[in-house]
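Cross-check.
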Amino acid sequence: MTELPRVSVIVPFFNRQPSLTACIEALLNQEDVGGPVEIIMVDNGSTDDSAAVVRRYPQVTLLREESPGAYASRNAGIRQARAPLLAFTDADCVTDRRWLQSVCDGMRDPGVAILIGHCRYPAEASWALTLLGAYENAKAEYVLTRCAPAYHFAYGNNMAVRASLFAQVGPFRLWDRAADTELVHRMTAARPDLRVEFRPDMRITHLEFLRVRDRVRRLSLYTRTNAQIASFRELGVAERAGVLLHLVRGSR
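Predicted model, tokenized:
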């Protein structure tokens, strides 16, 4: 009998040929998590040689999802996945070797249903983007440990979810953005006994951005999309000051 995987990793991609090899190699070189790992790559209609890159790795399951959007692709992976823990990253991200180990460690607490982790940028990124990345990580940790659930959020490029949660509340909404945050709020409404946590050692490197202005443009899109979530609240001045203080204290 084939042993079921302990974790299923789901990675959507669309025309990501340049970064796919690094993404897959990092996933295949994870430290042991005490059981098999299933890697599911979901092609969302690529027109370059992305799928051919994935086919070089017989250990990886390749799916194709015709409905456009990263969340449609993630949902296709969820339907295929066999593990009780589902980990999500993107094809332009490289996971640290202990990434999945951190996922498994964080999910030992039965009260945790969603994890998000630490995202950083490449070494060649601008100093301004590096500072913004530090702020973003401090914000995630601060919000999830000190703020009310209305402020909670998630991001699909470094996220883990119990499969049982999707079974209870349904898959990701088919939105362009912010469906990961919407899932957090749907969980809070349906299962207030469960929570989302930030894990600083659940680390990825996001290869897409090298300049701060490009990242700021993307963040502004998320701000507008978050407005679709009736229960979501953006941080006010006091909360943002708290994030900055948290960042300064953490850097000492």
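The beta strands are 7-13, 37-43, 60-64, 85-89, 93-95, 112-120, 158-162, 195-206. The CA atoms of residues 76 and 170 lie 13 Å apart. Passed to J.P. for a second look.
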